[in-house]
């Protein structure tokens, strides 16, 4: 039986780059906070990486968004960390900041929010596990960091060099439009079905 694997796709028309002014040069994380890999990843980031960032880059802000934000997150009293919770429009939220973080160390499957962030031209810092299923080039269209030092250094590079962050985001968007574009994926599936029924 013929089999074809199709990756997750995005609608380029919905993920347009129309921005209301310049986005805030800040970090953000968005994802369901009732999913254990997200909880573990954010707790790790806040405990291990954020103190290094706060000391070296005292002006950096971090926004935490997502459904079912746990009570401990609302109780956080960390300088420059703003807990947003569920947002009315995830795309508009992502477009309002420049750098997406995805500190994931467990779980499987493609991370939709990472692909959407990249499609919106955001610079993404992710672990290797977080970026599974994306045909990325490290330090070109995404920054991969698997420990606290490399995660800190990735944040430092993108925060101190706005042009690098913008260029990484631009290349990220191009990658997603080339490889995770619904229009292209549908065309490939139609072609596959045509071959099957010949």
Tags for this entry?
single chain, Rossmann fold, 6 strands
Number of strands: 6
- Listing every helix as H and every strand as E from the N terminus to the C terminus, the arrangement reads EHEHEHEHEEHHH
CATH top level label: Alpha Beta
CATH homologous superfamily placement:
Glycogen Phosphorylase B
- Poorly predicted spans: none
Most strands sheet: 6 strands, parallel
Q: Per the principal axes of the C-alpha atoms, what is the gross shape?
A: globular
Biggest sheet, spatial arrangement of strands:
3-2-1-4-5-6
Fraction of residues in helix: 40-55%
Distance between the termini: 14 Å
Under the CATH scheme, the architecture is 3-Layer(aba) Sandwich
Overall mean pLDDT score?
Answer: 88
Share of residues in strands: 5-15%
CATH topology: Rossmann fold
- Count of distinct structural domains: 1
Describe this structure in words.
A 6-stranded parallel sheet has the order 3-2-1-4-5-6, with helices on both faces. The protein has one domain: Glycogen Phosphorylase B (Rossmann fold). The mean pLDDT is 88. Helix 1 crosses helix 5, helix 4 crosses helix 6 and helix 5 crosses helix 6. It has 198 residues and is of the alpha/beta class. The chain starts with 23 loop residues before the first strand and ends with a helix.
